[in-house]
Amino acid sequence: MDGLVESGRSALRNALERVGRGWGRVQERRPLSHDLLESDDAYLVVFDAPGVRGEDVDVTFLDRTVEVSLERFRDFYDGYDLVFPGRGVSLSGSVDLPRDANVTPEGANATLTRNGTLHVEIPKRGGSSDVDVVEEDD
């Protein structure tokens, strides 16, 4: 009977792992959720960026488009086995600013917050460049 129970557990773990990896791939294919805000002086794009560190984030601004790519890693926990690997690890997204946006990459900044959002602020004026990412202090 123990062999049957163990076979059932093994089959369940294998099924959960396959479903979890499939769900992770679905997340990687979907663009990051975001909000686009505008003030008199700048545009602010807020991306969901859970579980990443500043050095694992790339932000590029080109022709009124903000592009973000994230690489996150799974932490390992002593005494625990991964049963359902459901979080995607390579995530990306982009946002097109309005056609009439007159913006510049000079002075643009990106802040990774403790609550798992990435704030990309682009001043109004004109241009294209990479954007440095800083991590919010604790």
UniProtKB/TrEMBL annotation:
Annotated Pfam families: HSP20
Species this chain originates from: Halorubrum ezzemoulense (Halorubrum chaoviator)
Lineage, opening ranks: Archaea, Methanobacteriati, Methanobacteriota, Stenosarchaea group, Halobacteria
Domain SHSP: 23-138
Similarity comment: family membership: Belongs to the small heat shock protein (HSP20) family.
InterPro entries noted in UniProt: A-crystallin/Hsp20_dom, HSP20-like_chaperone
Matching Gene3D superfamilies: 2.60.40.790
Protein name stated in the entry: Heat-shock protein Hsp20
